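Honest question from a wet-lab person: if I give you the sequences of every part of a complex, can you actually get the arrangement of the whole thing, not just the pieces? Trying it with mine:
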Amino acid sequence: MPKKIVLLTILLILIFNVSVLAQNDNIKLKINESLVTDNLTYKLAEDDILVPLQVLTNNLPIKMKWYNSIDTLKLEYKDKNLKFSLGGKRLQVNDKLINFSAAPYKSGEQFMVPLKVLGEALGLVIRAEPKQGVVSIYQDHARLEGIDNLEQTDNDGIKINVNQQVNSNSMLLQNPYRIVLDLKGTALYKKISNFEADSPLIKEVRVAQFNGNTVRVVLDLATKAKYKVEKSAVDDGYQYRIKVSPLITEVQVKDNKIKLNATSSLPKTNIKYLDNPNRAVINIENAILEKQENIKVDNSIFKEVRVSQYKTEPYVVRLVVDLKDKIQFKTEAAKDGLIIEPMQTVLKDISYESKNKVKINLNKKVEPKAVFLESGSRLMIDFPATTTELKSKQFKYDSQLIEEVRVSQYDQTTTRVVLDLIAPLPHELTWNENQLQVKLFNKLTAVELKDIGAGTEARVELLAPENYKVSRLINPRRLVIDLPGVVVNKNEVEVAGQQGVIEKVRVSQYSTNPHQGRVVLELNKSVNVIKDVVDNSLRFKLADFDLAGKVITLDPGHGGQDPGAIGYSDLYEKIPVLEIALKLEKLLKDAGAEVVMTRRADEFVPLEERVKLANKMNSDIFVSIHLNGHHSNTSFGTETFIASEGKKNSQLLAQFMQSSLVEQLGTFNRGVKKEELYVLEHANMPAVLEEIVFISNKKGEDKIRQESFKDKSAVAMYKGIIKYFELLAEEGN
Amino acid sequence: MVEKRDILLYTIITLLVIILLSIFSYFKFFATIQTKVYFANQQASHLVPEEKEVKKNQLYTNLIKELMRGPAADDLVATIPPQTKLLGIEIEGGTAVVDFSQELKDTHWGGTAGETMTVYSVVNTLTQFNEIDKVKILIEGQEIETLAGHMELSKALFFNSKIIKTD
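Yes, you can. This is the full assembly:
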C-alpha cells in the first residue's frame, strides 16, 4: 500500500503542481463516469486537491456527522470509519492514524477536504486526467496495476496485474486478428502506454478505460493464433495471463524432409528416438495444431508421420515419425514454422586390416542394416541417411576371405557396402567410435580321415586356407591343431569317426575372444606327421613313428686289450656290451634310423676315436653302452651318465633312457649323474653313457649272461630313444 | 795342559751341538698330522673320509700309502688295486702329479663307478691341502687317456665335493 500512495502522490504532484492545471481552469468531476459538475469548486494544495466534502456525500453513500463543538467530522462508508478535525492534518481511519498533506477547512457551508488522501482512505479510485481537466472518482473498483511480457521460459504473451480478482472475458476478433480482454469493475487510475510485446505473434498491446466499469486490454496480432487466459492470485492481488501460441496449419512430407507450416517460427523442439519399431518422437512446445493428421509416406526413410496436440497445458504438439531405419534428425526453426530433416552421415573411407578385418570410417555412428546373401556369399551393409565421399568404389585386399569390397550410393539416402566373400562366412560387426569394424571368420566344415596305405590322413576342411599350429602330446597321445580366427560350429562340422592310428576326432571352439578353433586327434600310438595344405584343406599324414633321417652312434664300451669291468665270475664287460649294442642297432635300423657303431668286434678302439666318429657322422645322439664294476661285489643298480656340463637334450635323453631301463629291467635306480667322462665331454651331440648293471655283483653278472636280459636291455634303450625323438617332434612342431 | 783343556772344551761344545741338533731332527722326522683319507662305500656311489694320523715328513707319499693300505672300517672299500705301487709324487705349482705302477690300470676292476671311486679317492685325498689344487695321475711316468675306459685322465682333476658322503 505505501508504495501505491507514493505513486499516487507523484502523479498528483504532476497533475496539480506542474501547472498543467491552472488555478482558474474549470475542472469536471465525474463519479463512476457520470458527470457531477463541470465546474468543480476546488483548491490546490501542496500535493492534493481540496474539494467540497458535500460533492462526495451527495453522490456516494457516505454518512457524515458534524460535531460542531469540537470542529470534528465523522464519515462512515462501508466498513470504514473516518474521523478528522478541521484545521488539523490528522486522519483517523478505523484504528489507524494517517496524515493529510493539507488540512481540511470550512469555507462557508462547505467542508473543503483533500480528495486524494480522503478518497484513498475511503477505498475509492481517484483518477486525474489533467489534459482533459477531469477528475474521476470510481466507487468500489479494482485497480489495474501494470502489464508486462510473460517470462521468457513461458509461452508468448502478456501478464496483467490487478489489485484484486475481477470478472473478465476475452475474445478473438478478426480483421485484423486481435485478442480482447475486458476486466470488469476495474479502473485504470494511471496512464499505461501501449507497448510492443516480446513476441512475433503480438504486434502491439493497448490498454484503455473502455467505460466506467471496464478496462480493456487489446493484443493486436500479427497473424492468426490461438490464445488462452489464465488467472491466479499473486502477491498484492491477482494476475491475468494471456498466452498466445502459433498455429501449425500444415504438415508436409517432401523429399526426406518434414515441413511444418505455422503462423510463427517454432523454435522450441526436442527429439527422442525409439527402437522396435524405429521411431522418432518430436515435441514442439508452445504450438497449437489446427488439425490432427496421419500422413502415410512411402520413401526411403519414412513410413508414416503422425501429428497431434499432445498437451494443452502447456501447449505441445507431437510429431511421431515411423522410420524404416534407425536414423537421427535435426530440426531447424523457419520463419513460418519448422523443418525436420535427417542428419546426414558421411562414409569417409574403407580400409583393411590383417586378420580379415574391414574398417568403415564414418563421420558419426549410424545403425547399419547388414544382410547376408548366402547364395552369392555376399555381406551387404546398408547405412541409412548416409552419403559417401569415396571416389574409388571397389577395393581388393590381400585377404583369403574377401574377394572384393564395393561401395555405392544405393539411393538418395542409403550408402551400401558390399563384401564379396569366398564363402558364406561368419562375421561380426563392432563399432569403435565412428568406425564400423567388419570382422570375418574362417569356418571349419569337416574333418575327414582317409586310409593312405602307409598310414592315415586327417583332412581338416575349412572355407578358406588358414594358418594353423600343431602340437603333440605324448601322454595321452594326441595331435592338437589350433586354428586362429576360425569359427567351429559343432553342429555344422562333419567329423569322421575312427581310422587307423586315429582313435577319435574332436572339434571345438577353443575360444571366442579371439576366435580360435581346435581339432584334436586322439592317437593310439606314436606317429610321424607330414603336413600339407591343399586349397582349403589342411592335411596331416600320420604314419607310425619312425626314426627315418636320424643318425645314432652306438658305442659298445672297451674291447680288445681293454676287457672293461671284470665280472664276479670273470665275465668281461666288453663281450655283452657289444652283443647288446648289436641288438639295439637292429631295432633302431628297423625303425628307419641310420646307426653308426664305434666297434662291431672285440677290438680296442681309443676313446678319442669313438667320439670323433660320432662327431664326424653328425649323429643326432651318442649312446655309450657299459656294465658297471667296483672293488666290492655288493654294488648294484642302473645308472646313466651325461657330461659334467650336460645340456638340456642330453638330460632329456638320459632321463628317458634311465627310466626306460629301470622300468624294463626292474633294476635299482641309481639315477642320472654328471661326470667328466671322455666320450661325453667330447661329443658334439646329446650323449649318454649307460651302466646297465654291476657285473662285479654276482646277481648282475648272472643276469647279463642271459640272452633275454640282453634283449630287454636293448629294447629298453630303444624305447628311451623313441620317446626322446617323439618329444623332439612334439616340441619341433 | 792348556791344549788338553781346550780340546776337552771343544769336545763338550761339539757334543752339545750334536745333541741339540739330534733333538730338533727327531721332532722334524717323527712329527705327525691329522688328515682325511677317502675310501669308497659298498655301493660305489660315494667316497667316505677316514681320519688318519700321518707323519709330516713325506706327507703326500704317506697319505697315498695310507690310501693304498685301505680303510679301517669294514663297510668301506679300498680304491687302489692291492698290487699297485706308488712310484712317486711331485708337486708342480698347485698340481700334484702322482705316478703309479702299471698294476693300477691292469688289475683295476673297471666300471664307471669303480673308476670314479679310484680316481677321486686319490684326487680328494691330496686336494684337502691348500697347496694342492688339482691332481694328475700317471702310470709308469706316462700320461694316460683313461684309467678304466671312461674317465678322461689326460688332464688334472679338481677336488670333487659332490661325490663325498660324510655321516
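Two things worth pointing out. The mean pLDDT of chain B is 92. Helices of chain B lie at 2-30, 59-69, 103-106, 112-126.
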